[in-house]
Amino acid sequence: MHVKALVVEDCVEFANILKNLLINDYNAQVSWVGSTGVLKSVFRKVRPTLVLLDLMLQSQFAIDYIPKLKRLGSTVIVISAFNDNAIVNKVYTLGADIFVSKPTNLGYLRNILRKYFNTHKTEEAVLRDFRNNYIASYKLPNYVLEWLDMFKSSKLRGYVFTNRDRFVLGVLYQYKRVPKEFLMNELGISEGNLRVLLFRLRRKLLKSKSPYSIWADHYGNLVLINRVSQFT
Q1: What is the C-alpha separation between 63 and 70, in angstroms, rounded?
Q2: CATH number of the domain that 161 lies in?
Q3: CA nearest 67: which of 43, 91, 31, 103?
Q4: Global pTM value
Q5: Nearest-angstrom CA–CA distance, 140 and 11
Q6: Which 3 state secondary structure label does DSSP give 84?
Q7: Are 167 and 187 in contact (CB under 8 A)?
Q8: Are 66 and 95 in contact (CB under 8 A)?
């Protein structure tokens, strides 16, 4: 997955320069907004990790958007011609990470972006580290990793299970208790879709007359339980 960046700039020519810089140098996934009217809705849709923000958008001052963007988790680099001390101090007070003056020295901006991309992991890298740490903590041997990658069958007879079903069941059969984040990352699905998948799996397990079912504990772990052993 690529870093998601949002360019907030009403000058089309300069916006294209910023977009090309992010795409060509860092292979970022870039969106562009040229007015404050749609900024909030676009931000919530894109959920960027990096925002390049101009302070003046079509005669509207965008400085008040800085704390809103920060609350939603983005790094904010302000690029503006309004560079007097009072404005710069307010920009930093509101939570902006970096202020860059216009006209912009692209070499200087490149150095800033290089530092950002060197210190902020991409979503793909975060997920990869999560998986590696999980594997290391459970000391999974190579044959188990190969087995997981192949979505090995759960050996339940008389019912058709999808690859995702078999993967979830296989991991739970092996370890009994697994963080939901691990399955979300491995399957590439949201928490809501994981809930739907688990609900469907519970019904499939019941129809296949398996003694097992799946539940979630208070810590966000998914737990495989044996319904029969609880009553014997």
Answers
A1: 12
A2: 1.10.10
A3: 91
A4: 0.52
A5: 53
A6: coil
A7: yes
A8: yes
